Amino acid sequence: MYTVPDLPYDYDQLGKYISGDIMRLHHDKHHQAYVDKLNAALDQAPALRERPLESLLSDLDTLPENVRTAIRNHGGGHYNHSLFWQWMSPTGGGEPSGELAKKITEKYGSFQGFVDAFTTKSLGVFGSGWAWLQPDMEIITTANQDTPIMQGKDAPLLGLDVWEHAYYLDYKNKRDDYVKAWWNVVNWDFVAERSAQK
Ligand code: MN3
Q1: How far does the centroid of ligand 1 lie from the alpha carbon of residue 147, in Å?
Q2: DSSP structure class, residue 151
Q3: How many Cβ atoms from other residues are within 10 Å of residue 6's Cβ?
Q4: How far is Cα 171 from Cα 66, in angstroms, rounded to an integer?
Q5: In sequence order, what are the residues at sequence separation of 6 or more whose Cβ sits closer than 8 angstroms to the Cβ of residue 102?
Q6: Helix (H, G, I), strand (E, B) or coil at 160
Q7: Which residues neighbour ligand 1 (ion) by CB within 5 Å?
Q8: DSSP designation for 27
Q9: How far apart are the CA of 126 and the centre of ligand 1, in A?
Q10: Distance from the CA of 81 to the center of ligand 1, in angstroms?
Q11: DSSP string across 71-140
């Protein structure tokens, strides 16, 4: 049985940038729904419970057809959101340092160059999806709850949820204001940790 992990901070702690109302809805309702539907799918294919979620998501083509779409959508949702909570922090924001900063600067010229490129990609996602920074410093996007490991790529270093449910209560249709605010809570320590593991 999969469960929703607790937030590593209080619901209201990102409040200036992402309200407690959004965090409660997003974590307690949306993420919970992905987990519930993932568990329901696995009830239909109990043998898959033996395998880690990453293994299922990176091997979707081999899964039984009756659960493949559910695992893609809801397993992807659980995987992405479990990381997303950790990619934010009340003490986040600012810029990365060390090796990660060097890699970003090498690729994008400056940290601001990276922020601009990532923001442009995020705003270019049509409908619901995510923007990702990959270990090779490429910025990619996926639709719905698809995640880079479904496409044979490495696990992402950083990801941004640009589904309307992630910002609508605070920002209405203004995705650009949400993305601008989000940089203030990005947990660069966690991103650097993931980068160092590659
Ligand atoms: Mn979401």
Answers
A1: 12
A2: G
A3: 8
A4: 37
A5: none
A6: strand
A7: 161, 163, 166
A8: I
A9: 15
A10: 6
A11: IIIIIHHHHHHHHHHHTB-TT--S---HHHHHHHHHHHSSHHHHHHHHHHHHHH--SSEEEEE-TTS-EE
Q: What pTM value is reported for the model?
A: 0.98
Rounded to 5 degrees, what angle do the CA atoms 92, 18, 193 make? 30
| Dihedral, 174, 180, 186, 192 alpha carbons, nearest 10 | 120
| Closest C-alpha among 27, 21, 19 to residue 3 | 27
The DSSP letter of residue 45 is S
Question: Residue written as tokens 């993931």?
Answer: 194
Identity of the amino acid at 84: F
The answer to whether 154 and 136 are in contact (CB under 8 A) is yes
Q: From ligand 1's centre to the CA of 7, what distance in Å? A: 14
Position of tokens 């442009």? 120
81-97 per-residue burial string, b: 16 or more CB within 10 A, e: under 16: bbbbbbbbbbebbebbe
pLDDT in tens, the chain (198 residues): 999 999 999 999 999 999 999 999 999 999 999 999 999 999 999 999 999 999 999 999 999 999 999 999 999 999 999 999 999 999 999 999 999 999 999 999 999 999 999 999 999 999 999 999 999 999 999 999 999 999 999 999 999 999 999 999 999 999 999 999 999 999 999 999 999 997
